[in-house]
Amino acid sequence: MSTIVLLTLTGLGLAALYFLVASGLSLVFGLADVLNFAHGLFLSVGAYGTWWAAQHLPGAGATGFGFVLAVAFGVVAGAVVAALVELVMIRPLYSRTIEQVLVTVGLSLAGVALLQATWGADPRPFPRPAWTQRVTDVLGAKVPNSGLLLIVAAAAVLAAILLFLRYTRYGLVIRAGVENREMVTALGIDVRKAFTLVFAIGGAAAALAGALGGVYFGSVSPGQGGSLLIFAFIVVVIGGMGSVVGSAYAAVAVGLLQQFVNYYGTSGAGDVCVVALLAIVLLLRPQGIAGKAATA
Amino acid sequence: MTDLDVAPAPAATAAPARPHRWAALRPWTPLLALALAAVLPYSTLQLPGVFDGPVNSPGTLHLLAVCLIFGALAAGYDLLFGRTGLLSFGHALYFAAGVYGTDILVTRAGLPLWQAALLALTGGATLAALLGAVALRTAGIAFAMVTLAFAQVGAILVARDFGGLTGGEEGLPLDVAGVPAVFVGVTNTVNLYWLALAYLALVVFVVHRVSASPTGRVLAGIRDDERRIGVLGLDPYRFKLVAFTLSGALAAGGGVIYCLLVGGASPHITSSELTLSLLVMVVLGGPATRWGPVIGGMLYMYLDHRLTAFGSSSTVDALPSVLSGPLSQPLFVLGTVFILAVYFFPGGLAGLTTRLATLRRALSRR
């Protein structure tokens, strides 16, 4: 019993990480039709921003309020980088999907290399508050606090994004834009502002994933974003592109499946099962669990 | 179609300048370049700054052979991306199938090389046909994602070392006992160079023949407007599957030769980064052009190799650390060049000649 509880909660922790990356990807794809390979870079920026702030920013540190400040710095850095990328690199190329993909591919290559050049290819130890390194007893299972922190953060982000989409004017524009961009433009609304906003939100969520993922794994390395990104892509496709709720469902399904199969089967079998799930979903329901048709 | 006759030989640079005298020679420039490349190992030319040793030294020939293989791989990938308009992110899988297939069959199963190569080739082609049949049921971005996911499974299978076949993270050195003596050892690098050259010639020939054939015209039609091909009564799915399988088989063939050249297999060739760099090669060279992808692939591998040496040289180390750090990362330089190319040279290197030709015409008219 305690094993199942433990596996469920660690699986949900993994799902939380996937969701934080996938929510931004999904919104960006749904609204702007940009398949963003540079999203892993935003995650790395968040992780390295937090890591840097904990050592150099006055007032920030590895414990208590200082850690919150460090994470906030990382999240802001991720959001700013994402908004800049949208303004400078993606905006001149709107409605040229292939070129946008190519630019984000180039950006992901160059960005990771830049991080590697600045801070080295080896993993760096990540600042962690002491309480995240302890475990909590849940129904007899000893669950790491960092995993619980991820779940709480992802739930908060999901609630915040949903409230934002449902009750604000920009949320309305974004929802309408995902449904039919031409119509929104025809009504005289500047959708491009919403694009920048969506990029910033996605960048912030990915940066938060980077910071909390750093706490979860205990270290930060330049390649971390890329390996998470592939699973985030799978989550986005399964969930349905453009749907945040779909991403949440898919993230939970993928995280739990991966964790349980990796524990009960051989290591690595879970990852293969996730891809099999992707193939099945695409063949039976190409638009994903909840989303518009996934054909570009 | 912007099919341009740009040969990688020095003769081509002179060709546009005097169109009258060289016009008769132009159709033969690819053959001339091939002949030149074939006799290159007999020269002891020293090119300081370009290569470390003389042209016929094993190190230089090894680098050239890697460039040739990747030029051919890029040409094969262009059959999918440039000529059929299929954005596949899983091409590394079929290349890796060739490399690991050959390596495992020779080293673990003890088969002679020709049998292993044949099996790896057919295995890679079958894999491409099977996975393509599934992946091509989707289109556009979803297709890219599915191919990426399939390639990721390949990478996981190799890295986790299921069944103890692949050697996991350390890779699997090729057991040379099953390989003919002419392909073993540093002194025989020249034979591998010729093999790589022959492979490049074969891939270029196949890609050109296919794209000039009626099938190639259908593929170009699918790229431009798939629905219209369907309306004409042709089944786009079958044509796309043919392109996918052929491209995968060509990549597997490259894998066989790469395995011989490098003397084994390492897990980094299964990574999605290899596919991404193939994409970079094709776009840098010029998609759907005759020589663009080949030149792009060769140039990319050459720069990737040379920039590593350049980055650790004393000239770069003398620069302030803000500059020397990023410059020592080949991927940073290549990624930046790639982004600039997407903005400013959409046709790639092959498109550059047409752009320069219009510029020259405009200047000479004045």
Briefly characterize the structure.
The complex is a heterodimer of chains A (296) and B (366). With 296 residues, chain A is mostly helical.
Q: How many structural domains in the coordinates of chain B?
A: 1
Structural class of chain A: mainly alpha
**What is the β-strand count of chain B?**
2
Instruction: Quote the average pLDDT of chain B.
Output: 83
Largest sheet of chain B: 2 strands, antiparallel
Biggest interface found: A-B, 46 and 43 residues
CATH class of chain B: Mainly Alpha
Cα distance spanning the termini of chain B? 30 Å
Radius of gyration based on Cα positions of chain A:
19 Å
Strand segment tally of chain A: 4
The largest pleated sheet of chain A is described as: 2 strands, antiparallel
| Average pLDDT rating of chain A | 83
User: By helix and strand content of chain B, what is the structural category?
Assistant: mainly alpha
